[in-house]
Amino acid sequence: MEDFILRALIAALGISIIAGSLGCFVIWKRMSYFSESISHSALLGVSLGLASGLGMHVGLIVVGTIFAGLIVILQQKNFLSNDAILGIFSHLALSLGIVILSIVGGENTDYFALLFGDVLSISTQDIIWIYVVLGIVVGLLVAFWQKLLLLTLNEELAVSQGLNRTFYQLLFMLMIALTVSISVQIVGVLLITSLLIIPPAVARVFARSPLAMVFQSIVVSMVAVLMGLSASTFYDLATGPTIVIALGVLFILSQLFTRRLG
User: Fold this and answer.
1) pLDDT tens digits, one per residue of 149-172
2) What CATH number does domain 3-261 carry, 3.50.50.60, 2.60.40.420, 1.20.58.480, 1.10.3470.10?
């Protein structure tokens, strides 16, 4: 097996575990549009990271964290409706990212890779970074599982029991920002949300408990990644879109299965 394929496989499987588990909370909390907005801000993070010399990953995390914090603050202030706030910041961040990249990027800047992923660019350092984030996210989910689940399924009860809603919202959004920061090279800025929402949407058909849905979502994500990487390697296709198509196929099959049982 070629080294770049092996690196891509290891990286994608790590991302599958993170996205599959966090995606369940995105579905439960109906935050698909929020994750889409965070993914759009990723392009601004990439451009600022390259412009400052701090690197792409640092820029992604800093911008994603600031972006998530601003959204939480504005939502609590009742400044505008949630979808309006997300829409404004999402498209503003995406546009700023394109403008800054056009200024600081050279002729060799691969915009297609940033938007849709580039499996050939995965390095050993990127893999290390992915699995560090994996450890952080899994550790936080294990430590705060009950509280995050209670806030997700019954927010009023959680608040009445003294849980700090703002803290856990920021914690969850930070985990989403970390996930976005490590997913750019696999599926790109425009397709990250699909990794977060499609696997749990498939797992929801079969799962009988929240924990089972998380594990099944991870399995679905891994299967789609393996299918997408295999197809993109054999047929020389773009990796990110191919993975998303594989996710779409699994989603359609799950719906057909549901109708057949119904």
Assistant:
1) 888 888 888 888 888 888 888 888
2) 1.10.3470.10
